[in-house]
Each structure stands twice: as C-alpha cells, then as structure tokens.
Amino acid sequence: MLKVFGAIVSGNCYKVKVLLHLLGLEHQWQEVDLVNGGARTEEFLIMNPNGKTPTLQIDENTFLAESNAILYYLAQNTQYFPQDTIEQAQVMQWMFFEQYSHEPYIATSRFIHMFLELTPERLADLESKKVLGEKALFVMEKQLEDHAFIAGNSFTIADISLYAYTHVAEDGGFDLSSYPNVLKWIKRVELVENFKPMKGFL
Fold first, then answer.
1. What is the pLDDT of residue 202?
2. Residue 6 pairs with which residues in a beta bridge?
3. DSSP assignment of 122-175, as one string?
4. What is the pLDDT of residue 115?
5. What are residue 55's DSSP bridge partners?
6. Which among 6, 16, 7 has a CA at the least distance from the CA of 164?
7. What is residue 180's predicted lDDT score, i.e. its pLDDT?
8. Pairing, β 27-31 against β 2-6
9. Rounded Cα distance, 82 and 72, in Å
10. Which residues of the chain are modeled with pLDDT < 50?
11. How far lies 63's CA from each of 7, 49, 185, in Å?
C-alpha cells in the first residue's frame, strides 16, 4: 500500500492528499511534525535525504519526493493528466511555474505568518515576497481570463498544484479580491467531483 509522509497543513502535502482522494487510492498517511524537526530525523533522511515532505513510499525500497513529481507519478493514465504531448507540456509548464514563481513567495509568506515570529527582518522579507507573489497571481489572473482551468479547459494536476497555496493565500497576507478570475477558478476547482479543500482533510 502507498504510504505518504506529510503534514496536512502544508500545501505541498495537501496536493498529494487531494489526488489520492480523487483517484480513490487506498493509502496510509503518516503525519510528520515539521515544526519540531520531524523531517530531519535519521529515519526520515534515509527515505528523503533532502529532509522535506511530502515523501511517497511506493514499496519497501522506493521513495519519491517533491510534491509535483508525486502528482505526475500518480496521475499517469488518468483523466488528470492529458494524453496529448503538447497538453502534457502545458500542464508541466504550470507546475514548474508553481514551484519557481508562485510557491516561493505565496507559500513561504503563509509559513512565516502562521509559524514564525514576525521580527522586523521577517516583516521586510514579507514585503519583498509580496511583490513577487502578486506578480504570480497576476499571471494566473490573465491565464484564467480565457481558460476554465489553469492549463486549458480541463481540470488537471496543474490545478491541484496551484490551488494548494492559492486558496489559502490570504493566510500569507495576499488579498485575492483583486483577482476575480482566480476567485472564480477556485470555486470551479472546488466543484470538481469529490474534490476537498484543505480544511476538508483537517
């Protein structure tokens, strides 16, 4: 049976939980205490030397790290990953965007607000992250002017990837009311059959 080592309050871990739920895949969930070093133990580092969640255990000796790589693995030959090669590339394009242009600013701002003391240095860091986070939201807003979902007109793992931290962006100090297309998209994603927002798993 698949086993996931993760923390459900983490958007990256939540992505994996969402897809497993949508696919109806039986799995074990091992909650990891990230704040108190649960991903830095000797046992965990054997599975994932990078010391990060989520980590998917596929069999006794096979472990897969990085949330979007796990989504890619699980979505093969399902409705959530297209068969057409250009459409596949477009899905991957948005998943790379999520990791390089979205998550470093929106997700980390949320983490700072939720788990760290807001020192003057961190407040200054948040201001710089806000600029780039708003830029990422603007890119999404423009894409969603003409598309029902982020990579086209079908719900894919790209939507799961970007929804994870976008729908809780306000936890990191981002005001989504300036992005009406993004807000409509969030509602569209939540209407996908059997989809659960983060609070649905808490």
1. 66
2. 31
3. HHHHHHHHHHHHHHHHHHHHHHTTS-SBTTBSS--HHHHHHHHHHTTGGGGT--
4. 84
5. 5, 65
6. 16
7. 98
8. parallel
9. 11
10. none
11. 17, 11, 33
CA distance 118 to 184: 32
Dist. CA 35–CA 37, nearest whole Å: 6
Tokens describing residue 135? 């830029």
Kindly give the interhelix angle for 157-166 and 120-143, rounded to the nearest 10 degrees: 140
How many residues can be counted in the chain? 202
The whole-number pLDDT of residue 200 equals 83
Q: Whose CA is closest to 102, among 72, 141, 51, 153? A: 141
The contacts of residue 142 (CB under 8 Å, 6+ apart) are none
Residue 162: its pLDDT value, please?
98
95 backbone dihedrals φ, ψ, rounded to 5°: -75, -35
Name the DSSP class of 100.
Answer: I
| First CA to last CA distance, the chain | 22
* Total-model pTM: 0.95
State how far the Cα of 128 lies from the Cα of 35, in Å rounded to an integer. 24
Strand, coil or helix: what is 5? strand
Cis peptide before 54 (omega within 30 of 0): yes
195: alpha, beta or left? (left if phi > 0; alpha if psi -120 to 50): beta
